[in-house]
Design a protein that fits this description.
Shape: globular
Distance between the termini: 22 Å
Structural class: mainly beta
Number of helices: 2
Strand content: over 45%
């Protein structure tokens, strides 16, 4: 699942998705590079610094399976991992995108899930940077 966040998403939304294969999946905010909004660039890049407590984000989310919560969290807890994609693939070449991981869950192939996402007012500048809310298969996440 991939959805570009817009100012209308500050009111919250729900979206459905169906994994193609069973496995572990991550809920991420993916920021295409370079990030044009300076304060957001500093926030996202600050998350990657060694010893940094990590940036926080003003949103809550949960993944549901038939209306039953599977997992969820808040951006206030900060990212739990980072997934960089370069021009040469994961971690190789010039940086094309940086995805911040906010939680993981085990998904079953061909099963319908949904995600509920609600952003607070402090997410407005972050949304101007046009991040993608994504559910992606876990592979090379840097903790």
């Amino acid at each position: 699942m991939k959805r570009e966040l817009t100012p209308q998403d500050l009111d919250g939304f729900q979206a459905s998705f169906t994994p193609a294969v069973s496995g572990d999946y991550a809920t991420t905010l993916n920021f295409p590079q370079p990030i044009e909004v300076e304060e957001v660039r500093d926030l996202v890049n600050g998350t990657t610094r060694s010893g940094d407590a990590g940036a926080t984000f003003d949103f809550v989310w949960q993944v549901l399976d038939g209306g039953k919560p599977v997992t969820g969290g808040t951006g206030q807890q900060g990212a739990t991992g980072i997934l960089d994609t370069g021009s040469g693939g994961l971690g190789g070449g010039d940086l094309k995108s940086r995805a911040l991981v906010f939680g993981t869950f085990s998904g079953e192939a061909n099963r319908l899930y949904s995600i509920e996402f609600k952003a607070g007012p402090a997410m407005a500048p972050v949304i101007r940077a046009k991040p993608l809310l994504e559910i992606v298969r876990v592979s090379a996440i840097r903790q």
